[in-house]
Each structure stands twice: as C-alpha cells, then as structure tokens.
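Teaching note: in complex prediction, the entire set of molecules is handled at once rather than each chain in isolation. The prompt given to students was simply: 'Predict the structure of this complex.' The entities are:
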Amino acid sequence: MDKKERILEVAEELFAEHGFEGTSTRMLAAKAGINVAMLSYYFGSKEKLFETMVDQRVNKTREKLQLIAETPISPAEKLNNVIDLYVEKILTNNCIHRIIHREISLHQRSEMTNVITDILLLNAQEIIRIIHEGQEKKIFREVDVEMTVGTIFGTISQLINSAALCSKLMNLDPTESVSSVKIQTRLQNHLKDLLHAHLTPKNASA
Amino acid sequence: MDKKERILEVAEELFAEHGFEGTSTRMLAAKAGINVAMLSYYFGSKEKLFETMVDQRVNKTREKLQLIAETPISPAEKLNNVIDLYVEKILTNNCIHRIIHREISLHQRSEMTNVITDILLLNAQEIIRIIHEGQEKKIFREVDVEMTVGTIFGTISQLINSAALCSKLMNLDPTESVSSVKIQTRLQNHLKDLLHAHLTPKNASA
DNA sequence: AAAAATTAATCAATCGTTTGATTAATTCAA
DNA sequence: TTGAATTAATCAAACGATTGATTAATTTTT
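The expected output is the structure of the full assembly:
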C-alpha cells in the first residue's frame, strides 16, 4: 500500500469529521499508521497536505460535466444527466464536498478558496448555459437562472451537510446513510421533477 | 455597554469567520476589548461561550414560524409567508447560520449538535405540515415533501455559505453583499415561484 | 555504499485556562 | 454618616498541554 495515498485518504476523512483546525497532525499520523514526521516529508506541511488532497479531487467532476454539455441531446435531457451526475458524485464523495463547503463558508480569501470557487463557478456556468439553451429553444420558461443553479447545488449540499437532520426528517433507520442508493435516486428524482415543473412553460402540456 | 453582550457579539462574528477551533480566546478578547480572563469569568469556558451564543439565537425564529402555521390563511399563502420569514431571518443573521451549518456538517454528536438538530427538525416539520395541509385540500400535488423542505433550506443556505461563489455568479459588484435587500427579495421571489410551480397540480390553471 | 524512508526526540509557539492581586462599587454596622 | 466588610469586575502573568514542524539518528531499499 502506498503510504502517501493512505495519508490523503485518512486526511479526507478526518478533515471532514473534525475540520482543518480540529484535525492535528498527530491524529492524522495515528490514523494513517505513520510517524508524524512523514507528513512534512511527503507534503511539506499540514496546509499543503490539505491543498494537495483538495486539488486531487476537485477537478474530476468538471470534465464529465462538460462532456454532458457538449452531447447533442435536448437541454431537458442534459439537465437530467447533469443532476444524475452531480448527485451521484457528491453523495458518494461526501467527505470532500463537506470539506469544500465548510472552507468556502469561512469567507476567508485564501489561495485555496479562490481555486475552489473558480472551479465551482465553471460548473455553475455550464448549467446556466444549458438552461439558456432551453430558453432560446422555448422549451424552458423564463426563470431566475442563477438562483435556480443555487437551488440545485443547495439541495444536494443540504443533504450531505445536515445528514443527521435529514435522517431524522425522512425517518431513516440509523444504519442507512443519506448516501445510500435509495436516497440517491430519491434525490435525483426529486430534483428532476422539481426542475421540470419549474422550467416547463405554464401553458405547455405536461 | 454590557461587556457580556459585547463578547457574545464578537464571538458570533469571529466564529463565523474563522470557525470554532480557528478562533482563539485571545482573538476574542482582543476584538471585544477585554481581558482573556473575562471569558472564563463570564462563561466558564470557550465551549460554554459558544453554546451560550448559539442558544441565545437559535430559538427566536421558531416562535414566529409557528405563528404563521396557526394563522387561518391558505397553505399557499402560509408557504409564501414562511419563505419570506425564513429568507429574511437567515440572510440578516447570516453569521449564526453559517456557524450552525458548519457545526452540523461535522457530524459530531455533541450535546450542541443535538439541540440544534432538534430545533431545525421542528422547523422542518412545521413546513411539512403546511404542505400536507395543501395536499389534503387538493391545491398542492403529490411531491417528495421531505426533499422539498431540503430544497427550501438548501437554497437559502447555499446563498449565505457560498457567498463568494454566488457573488461572482450573479455579477454583483463587490460592495454589494448577498444579504442586501435586493438579493433578499430576489431569493424570496425565486423560492415562491419555484415552489408554486412545483406544488401546483399539473392540470390546474396557472 | 549510497539513497530513500522512517523513527524518536525535541523545538518554539500557541492553545485554553487559572492564578493572585488590585480596583471600584456596594452593603452593612456603628 | 462615617468606616469597615463584602462583592463584583478587571488585570498581568503564568500554568500545563498541545500544536505544527524539525532535527539527527536509524533502518530499509536500491
């Protein structure tokens, strides 16, 4: 097993669970089963380890998103595909997304936040482009496009960031995670249904 | 000026900006213009200060929410009122809500998290009750009610937790905050429009 | 044997908290 | 109405513990 990989793995878990400041280098070393000095040896510092971990993960989703946007299908289908992809990616990698979300919520202008913000911005603009395309083709009605993107992102984030709340709200038995396939498809269906109702012109047939 | 109040005031700011672990007692003391010892003197510990601060704020909104739920108006109107109230409360008190959101996202089962979760749960159930009422009266269609609540909470949270992202996305000039009245009404209108489209039966007239 | 990986020991800095002393305000007794 | 006793508020200084990081020595790999 690659120790460097192993460190990145436990870093994702611990940072998600205790936050950046709440995770000490000794906690990381203990959980990874290595000596503290190895962190500096491999990554230079705790902060660089954090940045490396985020960097490695943060770019993956966007390529697939762009692929969808370029596929020659209807905007409605594109949007459905985007939702399926986004929900699946975020729920199955909920650790890193909780970390990102928390980092951003601090409103601290670090190099890291800027990098993350820019990537999320690209994702958002891709979705906006899809909606605009649908509006030009008159199959989507006029809505607040930016806020609509906020609804997509926000609904998914809500589920992973307030997992305990959502669990209680949906009467999940404690063994079942909000990342389960069942919840995943339920969220996908909800978002598709919601956006369909939201974007379909009022006088159009259902 | 009451020093105890002043401490709670700056605590809200600093915890929102730097997180709990990222805020030292000396930072708090410096910003509040008091001696570090006063924190222990007044609150016992940093943790208790945190809990006091959250406790003081977290209960306020719910009373008003319940008032709306009991007012004898149509479920559609109730929902609109709930949205107006919730958006206004969260945007104008965005510090405490960022803190709460972050605390919950840690998934750490502390007494604090339980208290917060329970209160949010009550709020959520109040909204669910309103939607159910509308469904019984056949003026709302069948939807995933729990997920719909997640959409309401999530959309609002998205705006305050990813303020930098939202600012760029909506081309706000840097002086304008996401908590401005302009954005507030825009968010309220979006949510009302979204939920109206989502909940209105398909074969009903617009 | 040279290089890379790993270790225990240690560093200065900072953490949250406590201490003992001092001041200012209030209460009580004469 | 003084003067003594008590309380609350505030302070600088220091506490032990922990932080992220580094050192120098040792082991492992090539």
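Point out the following to students. Residues 3, 34-38, 41 of chain B lie near DNA strand D (CB under 10 Å from a C1'). Chain B is about 75% helix and 0% strand.
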